[in-house]
Design goal:
Blueprint (H helix, E strand, L loop, with lengths): L1 H13 L9 E7 L24 H5 L5 E4 L5 H4 L4 H9 L6 E5 L2 H6 L8 H11 L1 H5 L3 E7 L9 H9 L6 E5 L8 H10 L2 E6 L18 E6 L14 H15 L4 E6 L6 H12 L6 H17 L2
Helix pairs in contact: 1-9, 8-9, 11-12
């Protein structure tokens, strides 16, 4: 009862109007560095011509945004330097954007607990990726909570949000069904943090995150695939993507920018769905883009389906 009263009080404190204007939509993939052949889960042959292809430079010829997930994993992140992000910025077109996932140290180990150093760890992370911000190529900062992170940790989340460094666009991804209540949305609106809307396996019980939920002047969508066991090895059909077309158009009318990423990366399936979604959304794909789209789709049909 005390917890429910606390949530109600927070809702009343957080209700603030947000002025939103018509925006634009950026569609890309979660990651791009998948060097194996498509048959082994990578993108070579299906999307990348060969193993010698400079993957980021090639990818950015066809997409104007990407999500960096490798920063999440400590085994990779600890070896990353500012120079890596400087080179990422140099390797991509002027209008390219990177959305970057916060390290697992912040979300999974320190669990957003400021008393355990979560804020300091986040500040170190933002400093490391600062070359992207200086180059004006930084999209959203993705904060993905662990599945075990429930609404009972609301207070830790609130304290963490209250100490977030200014000047960034943050997006928060809930992964436990207990967050399906009003309190979290009003908290995110208060801090202008985007709710990450997702499409995920039914067994996750996160269908509420597939609803249109705009909590900031920017929006964030992730398509994870729908397989319960091998979720990333999933190719969405046009029929499955169709409901997201109307949703995305509605979200676009309420946010200055919508960033969407296909995380079903296994075997370049994300590439096919990202192209497909862009086209159905109304983008007139150039002949070059269409050729690559068709080539990737044909390769998957002939070798993986």
């Amino acid at each position: 009862m005390t917890f429910q009263i606390s949530i109600t009080i927070k809702i009343l404190n957080y209700i603030k109007p947000i002025k939103l204007t018509l925006g634009r939509v950026l569609i890309g993939c979660s990651g791009w560095s998948y060097p194996d052949k498509a048959e082994n889960g990578g993108w070579t042959k299906a999307f990348y011509p060969d193993t010698k292809t400079k993957r980021l430079s090639y990818y950015s010829q066809y997409f104007n945004t990407a999500e960096i997930d490798s920063t999440f994993y400590e085994k990779f992140y600890k070896y990353m330097t500012k120079d890596i992000f400087f080179r990422m910025a140099k390797s991509t077109p002027e209008d390219f954007q990177f959305s970057v996932k916060v390290p697992e140290t912040v979300t999974h180990k320190q669990r957003l607990n400021v008393q355990q150093g979560a804020t300091s760890s986040l500040e170190d992370f933002l400093d490391k990726i600062s070359p992207l911000k200086k180059a004006k190529k930084l999209g959203a900062i993705l904060i993905q909570l662990p599945p075990s992170f429930t609404v009972k940790e609301f207070s830790n989340t609130e304290a963490f949000m209250d100490r977030l460094p200014k000047g960034y666009e943050y997006a928060l991804e809930f992964r436990h069904p207990s967050w399906e209540t009003e309190g979290p949305w009003d908290m995110l609106k208060h801090y202008n943090i985007a709710t990450v809307m997702t499409d995920s396996p039914p067994s996750d019980n996160l269908q509420f995150l597939s609803k249109i939920t705009v909590t900031a002047n920017h929006a964030f969508i992730r398509w994870h695939g729908r397989n319960a066991k091998y979720r990333y090895n999933y190719l969405y059909s046009k029929e499955e993507l169709k409901p997201w077309i109307d949703k995305t158009k509605q979200i676009e009318s309420e946010a200055t920018i919508v960033r969407g990423y296909f995380n079903n990366h296994y075997g370049a399936k994300a590439i096919v769905n990202a192209f497909q979604f862009r086209e159905v959304l109304g983008e007139n794909l150039s002949a070059n883009l269409r050729d690559v789209y068709m080539k990737t789709q044909d390769y998957l049909s002939e070798n993986l389906m």
